[in-house]
């Protein structure tokens, strides 16, 4: 079977010579790994795989693969597909708890997760060694994965989805495609064509309206190039790295954890493998997630793992920082990085922003912009890329006051929450109102809950399906180093549940780090309920004797003394008392002996009305590319009975173009009406497309459906008669109505912002049937 | 005099210790250069200079300078300014040709330019050596500069502008400020705060509406990280560089042309300088613009030029490429750059875009995005930065058909054009309708003229003043390597005329370059007026004998023959005829002897209906940061009689916030009305700010004026009475009207999109006088 696949690829090699470097390295059936390998390979060689089936327990049986190859210049196209060759991936409902039959099948898997979850809890309570804990967590994750995969398989499918068909459409109508393809392309970088760009810009403009405008956030736009010290403070210079190894001869790079996993799985599946070896390999794979560099390096040598492509030796593991480095300015001395997230730009501007907000907490700052991560092996289309647009919010609030003024207005919203606890207990996600979730401390505080709800509302508004959206809480061990609670909004796609929006409580981590590095206090003042009396202890220099003793150094000594912290002052006082002198060292290295006649320590009290606090930060962080991908996938449809007529059911609020204008034929009498409508639509700020090409009206409608245009105006011979009328067609229902040419613009305006629904239009205007029949 | 300045700087040194490195290096009066030097220095040390005066002939006399220093953290602030210390920079009208008195003063300067312009023309006609031509052009430029400076000085001033005051406001209300300031900052990088970001996003959204929507352009969004080969083709790898030298000890970098110019000017102004030396120096400075690396290096050694800061030796000149370099992917083998312009992303996608447009020309593609240039010494605030947002349009058209369908609709628009010819003749810019300009071939074609007019309309719409806007044509010698005609939209600022939008005819340069590099034909098909018969000449292999002779190589031979160009086929035919054999070399190095029995050459004719053309590209390219700067400067005002109350007269369409809501006092009865209005404004998508802080209403209005809020609603005690009314205030006229709380939203909606003008509001509603009096 696998040979057939390899054979099917063979002819491509000559066609794509120079465009791809890799041969599929493991094409044995019965591993999910080989499927991903196949897609990686296909991705690299830039053709799409149109047939892989999976049986219900997840083993894959490949039948002769029919890749449709699109050559680099996008012109030559070899379509080897046949009608039967389709890879089916199912999207499912998340609420399957109610079906007892399915539950019976899942019960043992749930029990296995619970058992392991309890073990992890127990180890934590006992304070077990970290390595044991890591191992237990890795096993827990693997059991969770098994449960989740099975859950997805057993859920009644609601959508049949053919990824390759969608990808073909996205390429063909240039929603997006690989960047620099005429130069051979770069993996992990995509260019958005007219439709993708319009979709993206509509999503961002709605985002601005929904978050920045409605919540009166402060939007900022900060630099991408970031000097090293900033990212040193944030932890990215030290921690934002993946381990990799290189082929010593070719320089080919491999992500180390992926490499070991693949190598050991291969090894343990070898017929010659003993039961002992198999167990050993499986054990390592489970532990892999928690291993450090040395441990992984030991595995490499123990099993003598070589490059899977060339069998050459591999280098020692290298920590590869995922940030793109560059030099700022001509000297070559200022090291900088392309920012890996937009958040830091907000944190370093905290003082200016607090001042702009007249010193008051809470306030939220938003930023939309590009970030960059130099992935070792980018994959999965828009999901893991090197350059991506984020929309981030940093909500600064008093750490002791995380309630939210508008929480009550959304408290009744039901969300699908998959808590850390449920994950450890082998339970499913649950539907619950956010009010109850906060009341039960399932979600830590109102502000976090408020943002989760707003994220939920936003995603549904732009077209994400409620049944394909859940919030998954990070388990303790997967939380980023800065976070103290984190919920990911995950969208279900053919790649599984994909994190599209993170919603984290970053506590005071970032402001604290930047304060520490710069010495600038990034704090807010909080009015005390009652004024407080505090003891003040300061060093008073005796100006006269100090000046006499130290001459021109007296000034810097005075300054240094004024800058001492409270504890340092106490130390000075003690030392003076004990030894009758104190040795002061300045930054420039000079030292001065101070005695009780040059300085004294004065104690006093003062009344303070405010205290300084470092605000907590709640951060909703949107990955725009991932949201777009999930949106496109969840809205991809084919017409019943005609699988070649595909379209996107994107809501009109985000659809790239709002309307098409199609004359029934190229009769010149239609032209004034085309111009009149186009001008009126432009004036109403409604993006549209005139298609007066020669195809049949049905074919032209199909073309507008492909680019998700929700409504179409047809100009026909009745339009020429007075009163002038046109037909208006709805993409999703295929229904048409007839209405006056002067009315249609207002109707479209309301439809496009969602103020009017199509069924209301159907109620108001006479249905028109003729035209679809003539296609 | 100069000593006073230096002295005024001295105390700063200790305040800013560590923040600036440079001492002003040339502070002699009587050079405009020392002013720019002063500002560079001030810019580096991050304080603003508040007093420099210039006498009418351009010599500068500095009086004690009063810098106001803002420390890195934006907290400590030392304002040394007094009311009298103000630097005045005048914005002027461009049409001064009519004033005979002024013209008389300018006449000798105009004559000098004309004389030199004619010399340049003559040299071109004669085909004079390039070095002579360069020298003449440099002299022409210098005479032009003299004329232009004088023109500006003599124009009656219309605005008094105090740059430091504006910069102080921009910082204080965080329109924008230096990035990473808490880490010491990076020159040439700016973060936009809430008001700057909103202004920018409003400008971009209007741009989209005005260009993309109205002209039905295809908008794309391409990658920033660009692999080297792409930028090799575009010419950026080889040509996008400035020459610099480094201080051998400190590593400090200097732009070579600036360095030589400063050094020689200093030398020639030395009292000991002979007349001969002076002439020599002036001669070199004039020639500098056209010198190559070696020539400049020779100047360095001849005059023994050292580092102006340390007097250390300098390195040989280094070509410093202005692109930021990085590595894409983990191997370190794929070199990439941050794009220096967005245009290339469009060119490499040309085929996809043409296909999206169903193969038809003309069509225009737009892109908004960030670009990066690693300037050796960034300066002048937002005008020369390292990271900037561009909005570019590439209009692809048939090179023989550069007319524009909508040209007639704008033909009567009057633009201020400063043609290359007028520049060479010492004449001023002229006002002319674009229709006439194209008719007279002053502007090359309708498409170029159409875009220039649209740029003009757009800039006026967002608030650029007509009298401070001109289009300057590039002279032959300053045109980029790719352009065949180019007009810059220049805005007048206190830095002089600043290029804000370029509008170039790039001809077929870029598509040609990328075609050549990739072998992929970036062409469009053009229907021939009549079908054409063309001769076809192809090699026909004799399959049987070829197969017999070359066995398995026969296939690659056949392929190689099929790929031969027409001229190569002719060569094969001739060689076969002459020598009875032809030696075919394949790419892999193998050679095959072909004889007349294995191949023959067949001649035939075929009828073709289309021809392939490489489209021409017209490129309007907007520098958003520069436009924003010019806009802010041209709209900066102080209230008559109260110079401390500054504001921006930004039109409501671009104003960061559209409206303020101010309760007269913090009476709780006002609160429901605040909430009602805020909710209604949000629903109407009108950005706004509630200021219920305790300041007087007048002081709060002044604060909203500072951030350019055009309209303000006041809630007062009359609001509490039925029917509920509020007052609406206009920022620019300070007038107020009283109207119903239910009417105000619709009025604001129309005001904010410019559909309604303030004077119309004044006509409709009763004027309200009381409140401003109570401030």
Q: Would you write up a description of this structure?
A:
Two copies of one chain form a homodimer. The first copy, chain A, is of the alpha+beta class and 775 residues long. Helices cover 39% and strands 25% of the residues of chain A. Chain A is built from 28 helices and 36 strands. In chain A, the strands form eleven sheets. A nine-stranded mixed beta sheet of chain A has the order 10-17-18-28-23-22-21-19-20. In chain A, strands 32-31-33-34-35-36 form a six-stranded mixed beta sheet, with helices on both faces. A three-stranded antiparallel beta sheet of chain A has the order 1-4-5. The two termini of chain A are 44 Å apart. The N terminus and C terminus of chain A are likely disordered. Chains A and B meet through strand 9, helix 6, strand 10, strand 11 and strand 15 of A and strand 9, helix 6, strand 10, strand 11 and strand 15 of B.
Count of DSSP helices of chain A?
A: 28
Which strand order do you get reading across the main beta sheet of chain A?
10-17-18-28-23-22-21-19-20
Helix content of chain A: 25-40%
Radius of gyration of chain A: 32 Å
Q: Major sheet of chain A: size, sense and barrel closure?
A: 9 strands, mixed
Most extensive protein-chain contact, per-chain counts: A-B, 87 and 86 residues
| Percent of residues in beta strands of chain A | 25-35%
Outline of chain A: globular
Quaternary form: homodimer
Label the structural class of chain A: alpha+beta
What is the terminal separation of chain A in angstroms? 44 Å
The average pLDDT score of chain A comes to 83
Number of strands of chain A: 36
Q: Which residues of chain A form runs of ≥5 with pLDDT under 50?
A: 1-96, 771-775
């Amino acid at each position: 079977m696998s040979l057939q696949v390899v054979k099917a690829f063979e002819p491509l090699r000559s066609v794509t010579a120079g465009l791809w470097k890799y041969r599929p390295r493991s094409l044995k059936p019965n591993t999910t790994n080989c499927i991903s390998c196949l897609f990686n390979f296909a991705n690299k060689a830039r053709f799409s795989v149109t047939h892989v089936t999976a049986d219900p327990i997840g083993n894959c049986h490949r039948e002769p693969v029919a890749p449709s190859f699109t050559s680099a210049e996008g012109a030559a196209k070899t379509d080897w597909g046949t009608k039967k060759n389709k890879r089916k991936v199912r999207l499912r409902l998340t609420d399957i708890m109610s079906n007892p039959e399915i539950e019976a099948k899942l019960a043992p898997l749930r029990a296995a997760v619970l058992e392991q979850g309890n073990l992890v809890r127990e180890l934590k309570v006992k304070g077990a060694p970290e390595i044991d804990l890591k191992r237990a967590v890795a096993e827990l994750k693997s059991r969770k994965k098994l449960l989740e995969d099975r859950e997805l398989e057993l859920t009644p499918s609601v959508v049949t989805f053919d990824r390759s068909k969608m990808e073909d459409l996205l390429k063909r109508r240039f929603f997006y495609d690989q960047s620099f393809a005429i130069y051979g392309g770069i993996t992990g970088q995509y260019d958005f064509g007219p439709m993708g760009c319009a979709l993206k810009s509509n999503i961002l403009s709605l985002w601005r309206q929904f978050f920045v405008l409605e919540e009166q956030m402060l939007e900022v736009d900060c630099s991408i190039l970031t000097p090293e010290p900033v990212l040193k403070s944030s932890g990215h210079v030290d921690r934002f790295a993946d381990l990799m190894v290189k082929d010593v001869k070719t320089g080919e790079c491999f992500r180390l954890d992926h490499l070991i996993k693949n190598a050991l799985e291969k090894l343990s599946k070898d017929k010659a493998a003993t039961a002992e070896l198999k167990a050993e390999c499986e054990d390592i794979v489970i532990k892999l997630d928690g291993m450090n560099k040395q441990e992984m390096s030991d595995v490499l040598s123990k099993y003598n793992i070589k490059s899977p492509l060339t069998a050459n030796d591999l280098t020692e593991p290298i920590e590869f920082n995922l940030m793109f480095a560059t030099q700022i300015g001509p000297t070559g001395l200022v090291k900088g990085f392309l920012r890996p997230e937009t958040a830091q730009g907000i944190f370093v501007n905290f003082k200016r922003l607090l001042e702009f907000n007249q010193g008051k907490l809470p306030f939220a700052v938003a930023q939309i912009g590009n970030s960059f991560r130099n992935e070792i092996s980018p994959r999965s289309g828009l999901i893991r890329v090197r350059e991506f647009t984020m929309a981030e919010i940093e909500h600064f609030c008093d750490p002791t006051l995380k309630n939210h003024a508008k929480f009550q207005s959304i408290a009744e919203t039901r969300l699908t929450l998959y808590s850390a606890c449920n994950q450890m207990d082998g339970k499913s996600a649950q539907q619950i109102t956010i009010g109850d979730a906060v009341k039960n401390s399932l979600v830590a505080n109102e502000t976090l809950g408020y943002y989760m709800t707003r994220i939920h509302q936003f995603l549904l508004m732009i077209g994400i399906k409620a049944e394909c959206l859940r919030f998954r809480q990070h388990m303790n061990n997967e939380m980023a180093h800065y976070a103290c609670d984190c919920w990911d909004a995950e969208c279900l796609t053919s790649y599984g549940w994909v994190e599209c929006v993170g919603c984290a409580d970053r506590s005071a981590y970032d402001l604290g780090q930047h304060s520490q590095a710069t010495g600038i206090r990034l704090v807010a003042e909080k009015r005390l309920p009652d004024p407080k009396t505090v003891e003040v202890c300061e060093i008073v220099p005796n100006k006269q004797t100090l000046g006499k003793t130290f001459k021109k150094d007296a000034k810097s000594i005075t300054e240094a003394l004024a800058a001492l912290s409270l504890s340092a002052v106490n130390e000075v006082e003690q030392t003076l008392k004990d030894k009758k002198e104190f040795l002061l060292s300045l930054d420039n290295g000079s030292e001065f002996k101070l005695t009780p006649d040059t300085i004294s320590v004065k104690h006093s009290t003062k009344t303070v009305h405010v205290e300084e606090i470092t605000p907590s930060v709640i951060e909703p962080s949107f990955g725009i590319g991932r949201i777009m991908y999930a949106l496109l996938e969840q809205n991809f449809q084919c017409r019943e009975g005609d699988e070649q007529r595909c379209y996107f059911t994107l809501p009109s609020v985000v659809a790239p173009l709002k309307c098409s204008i199609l004359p029934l034929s190229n009769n010149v009498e239609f032209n004034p009406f085309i111009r009149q409508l186009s001008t009126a639509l432009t004036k109403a700020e409604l993006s549209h497309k005139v298609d007066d090409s020669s195809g049949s009206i049905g074919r032209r409608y199909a073309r507008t459906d492909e680019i998700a245009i929700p409504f179409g105006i047809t100009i026909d011979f009745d339009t020429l008669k007075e009163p002038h009328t046109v037909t208006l067609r709805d993409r999703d229902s295929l229904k048409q109505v007839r209405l006056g040419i002067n009315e249609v613009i207002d109707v479209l305006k309301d439809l496009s912002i969602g103020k009017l629904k199509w069924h209301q239009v159907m109620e108001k205007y006479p249905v028109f049937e003729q035209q679809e029949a003539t296609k």
